[in-house]
């Protein structure tokens, strides 16, 4: 038998909490429907592409005194995209609901992500198999992958595998792109009268898959608490040694939710927010000047140390860099089609003049990182661009200039960090353990009511779990058209940081105080046992957003 740590043993025993509407049993539910919905943008194009699944209502579940019988349903489940804490509990909730509805039901896990359903690679879940993964981090139960489900051939292969296993439904656990795949598969299954349903579950530590019905994506709570612990540790070290500036880049490509949440939990000296940089059209030079000013002012009062938080995707939000990268993505796509060898010179010769100038001005290290392999959507992999080192290099050069002018007499010694993978597979917090289990349990409720093209939704999340509201939101409701690989395609719209929202305002109001007066917070490790105010509390982001929502009611 595999040796387990004491914490593993205790976490396997934990029984996640459910909303009261679900806790009475999967066969004791009734469903309420809202009014018809529409996509967030590009309604005509989205409706044309999803003519069979567009415009469905938001649904919610509540208890009923009567008990319904449930037909035998076999379900397949896919983990898609990057890992996020709590994925195993989504599957556990799905499995328990499925078996509760009818003990003859079967759950199959497709191995290695969406490729598993295409290639027919799967495993059947049993009690013993499932019980070994409850409340644990990672996606290793069945593995994950980034294969896109979008071609006719892939859909047909998936259908054959589903028929072989006699599946009634497929649950796709993933982020915005993975759930776009779910919407496409759901539409194709309906269009071809297969009778197979598709349900999504909202996963991403980036926190950018959310709206009024999806208050938070799972994994965000655990990941940000993990990063906050690490930042707090570094802040304690910086405040002890008093000789280093630490530049911490944090995962989150297209949105700064993770960086913002980690900042609210730890209160560092400098926090950059990509969406603010874009809104204010801050150039790279203006960012350097802003950070340098704080470093100089702190040095003048004897503080040659500090902490700066940098979001992973920052470089794409700097106007001149965003323009250049967009142009570069198109150029690289064309070069790939034409079979042209990639080099600095070849790329520069194809970029627009202004973008070529920006590209040529960058250090060779950054230039080469911009030419690294594209992500599955044909875009620059910003996690491989060492933005934190670029900032350190440019700030150091600027401080040398100031020193030569007699305007800086302090010291600047910098350390760089990138926190990404450290947060993706952590033991889920109590919140994520409960939330994920509820999402999976709720996903089967959606299946049991014959729905397809829906995302599992559990709301009212700042209240105790028994007061959470379970239901579903149509996947098409969140969609718009965006350019991918040079073509316009339907995708779920990412939710970026709102600069007029309560979360960013909290940072904005405290920036100067935190910059100069070292109001560091030290969150410590995630706690699983103890008072609820320590163990069950969720993110600052969710609390601030929900507090505003309550205030407006």
Q: What topology emerges from the helices and strands here?
A:
Elements: H1 6-13, H2 20-23, E1 29-33, H3 43-49, E2 59-63, E3 74-79, H4 87-101, E4 106-110, H5 115-119, E5 122-124, H6 127-131, H7 152-164, E6 167-174, H8 176-191, E7 197-202, H9 220-241, E8 245-250, H10 257-266, E9 270-271, H11 274-279, H12 284-300, E10 306-311, H13 314-317, H14 319-338, H15 344-350, H16 353-360, H17 364-370, H18 387-404, E11 414-419, H19 430-448, E12 454-459, E13 469-474, E14 479-484, E15 487-492, H20 502-517, H21 532-535, H22 540-552
Parallel strand pairs: 3-4, 3-6, 6-7, 7-12, 8-10, 8-11, 9-10
Antiparallel strand pairs: 1-2, 2-13, 4-5, 12-13, 14-15
Helix pairs in contact: 4-19, 9-10, 10-20, 12-18, 14-16, 15-16
CATH architecture of the largest domain, please? Answer: 3-Layer(aba) Sandwich
Strand order of the largest sheet: 1-2-13-12-7-6-3-4-5
Please give the largest β-sheet. Answer: 9 strands, mixed
Instruction: Give the overall form.
Output: globular
How many structurally independent domains?
2
The parts where pLDDT drops under 50 for at least 5 residues are none
Helix count equals 22
- Determine the oligomeric state from the structure: single chain
Quick check: average pLDDT? 94
- The CATH top-level class label of the largest domain: Alpha Beta
Number of strands: 15
Output the structural class: alpha/beta
Distance between the termini: 54 Å
Q: What does the radius of gyration come to?
A: 24 Å
Query: And the CATH topology of the largest domain?
Result: Rossmann fold
Helical residue percent?
Answer: 40-55%
Strand content: 5-15%
